[in-house]
């Protein structure tokens, strides 16, 4: 079956009730036939549900679909995107190891790398997203992992996955991609040699701003190491959230098609607006890494960003003028969302660190929803004009 069909048809085995839609397994533990059955399950001699901190049928259904969509052998899910990211770091890196990360990454990922990994003796360096000629020179003898997002949040830089995959292979590094912005519909990093693909399920995978979740996908052996770490450390995903997400994946492909069509429409309409210094969208020919985006992505995704010529005050004014678009911290929703990173998500970074990742004072990020595209455009235009 095609992965899109698997995202709809992979299903927990039907119970004797003959239900069509998967039931919610809201149970903390599972029963055994007898003492021998229980012993074998605990000894990992048979695959069995034991306890929902480890695994639960709703989680397995969701992760089976994610592995199918990402084209990997296995996947595991946790309580949030950040628990997925921190579990990857802590399960696979140890004292003395060096993590090489792109500088343009999600704000909380920065905090984990800068503030917490050093406590465990894990070193790091950042390379610049738009200077690929410097990447290889940043690799050290003790570098174990390379971590990137593409497109990056919120600057929408595109990193060349093929080049990164070759570097990782040459230097024997674990290649980790946060694929949250693209989704597996637009981009499958495993095709370029990624060892671990991470998602915040909170964003496009849910797509309706209801639940938090994180996913890791990759080879069985690596995912098993992360699973064993999580089953003891405990960042478990709620079966209810997994049930929601498994249903959401049935519509991921059609939703992403509309999100990206709406985003491209807005990008083309707004690109030359006089109040904007620039507008960035991966599938606009004016995007600095347009050729790479076209090579590795099937669509440009649902996010666009632009810079208001009026700077910080114009950014705040723009948000105040919006009538329909939501002002909220999330992205990847049916409802269009506007955010102003300099005063919110990235306010903890210094001005200099913000500028290093192209977060200028007037930068606005739009997560394009599923409303009629004319309504989204009209709201943005009136907010710009006023
Ligand atoms: C939101 C986000 C995360 C963190 O996910 P949570 O589910 O909020 O913990 C990580 N990476 C990217 C790119 C994100 O947008």
From TrEMBL:
GO terms for biological process: 'de novo' L-methionine biosynthetic process; homocysteine biosynthetic process; transsulfuration. The modification N6-(pyridoxal phosphate)lysine is found at residue 203. Its EC number is 2.5.1.-. It comes from the Bacteria. CDD domains: CGS_like. The keyword Mitochondrion does not apply. It catalyses: O-succinyl-L-homoserine + hydrogen sulfide = L-homocysteine + succinate. It holds the Pfam family Cys_Met_Meta_PP. Keywords: Amino-acid biosynthesis, Aminotransferase, Methionine biosynthesis, Pyridoxal phosphate, Transferase. Its cofactor is pyridoxal 5'-phosphate. GO terms for cellular component: cytoplasm. Pathway: Amino-acid biosynthesis; L-methionine biosynthesis via de novo pathway; L-homocysteine from O-succinyl-L-homoserine: step 1/1. GO terms for molecular function: carbon-sulfur lyase activity; pyridoxal phosphate binding; transaminase activity; transferase activity, transferring alkyl or aryl (other than methyl) groups. InterPro entries: Cys/Met-Metab_PyrdxlP-dep_enz, Cys_met_metab_PP, O-succ-hSer_sulfhydrylase, PyrdxlP-dep_Trfase, PyrdxlP-dep_Trfase_major, PyrdxlP-dep_Trfase_small. HAMAP family: MetZ (MF_02056). Catalyzes the formation of L-homocysteine from O-succinyl-L-homoserine (OSHS) and hydrogen sulfide. Homotetramer. Belongs to the trans-sulfuration enzymes family. MetZ subfamily. This is O-succinylhomoserine sulfhydrylase. It comes from Taibaiella lutea. The gene is metZ.
């Amino acid at each position: 079956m095609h992965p899109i069909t698997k995202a709809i048809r992979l299903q927990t085995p039907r119970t004797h009730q003959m239900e069509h839609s998967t039931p919610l397994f809201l149970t903390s533990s599972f029963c055994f036939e007898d003492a021998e059955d229980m012993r074998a399950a605990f000894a990992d001699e048979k695959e069995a549900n034991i306890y929902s901190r480890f695994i639960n049928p709703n989680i397995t259904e969701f992760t089976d679909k994610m592995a199918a969509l990402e084209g990997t052998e296995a996947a595991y899910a946790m309580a949030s995107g950040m628990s997925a990211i921190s579990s990857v770091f802590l399960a696979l890196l140890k004292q003395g190891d060096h993590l090489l990360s792109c500088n343009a990454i999600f704000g909380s990922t920065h905090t984990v790398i800068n503030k917490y990994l050093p406590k465990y003796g894990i070193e790091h360096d950042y390379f610049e997203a738009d200077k690929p000629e410097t990447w290889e020179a940043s690799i050290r003898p003790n570098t174990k992992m390379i971590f990137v997002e593409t497109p990056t949040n919120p600057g929408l830089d595109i990193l060349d996955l093929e080049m990164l995959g070759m570097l990782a292979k040459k230097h024997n590094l674990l290649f980790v991609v946060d694929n949250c912005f693209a989704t597996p519909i637009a981009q499958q990093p495993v095709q370029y040699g990624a060892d671990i693909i991470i998602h915040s399920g909170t964003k496009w995978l849910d797509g309706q701003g209801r639940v938090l979740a994180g996913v890791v996908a990759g080879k069985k052996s690596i995912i098993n190491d992360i699973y064993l770490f999580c089953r003891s450390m405990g960042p478990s995903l709620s079966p209810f959230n997994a049930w929601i997400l498994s249903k959401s994946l049935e519509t991921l492909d059609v939703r992403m098609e509309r999100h990206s069509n709406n985003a491209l429409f807005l990008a083309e309409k707004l690109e030359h607006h006089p109040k904007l210094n620039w507008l960035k969208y991966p599938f606009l020919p004016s995007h600095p890494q347009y050729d790479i985006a076209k090579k590795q992505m099937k669509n440009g995704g649902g996010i666009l960003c632009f810079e208001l010529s009026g700077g910080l005050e114009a950014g705040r004014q723009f948000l105040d003028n919006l009538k329909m678009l939501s002002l909220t911290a999330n992205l990847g929703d049916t409802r269009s969302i506007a955010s102003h990173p300099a005063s919110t998500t990235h306010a903890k970074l210094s001005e200099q660190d913000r500028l290093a990742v192209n977060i200028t004072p007037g930068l606005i990020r739009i997560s394009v929803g599923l409303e009629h595209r004319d309504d989204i455009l009209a709201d943005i235009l009136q907010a710009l004009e006023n």
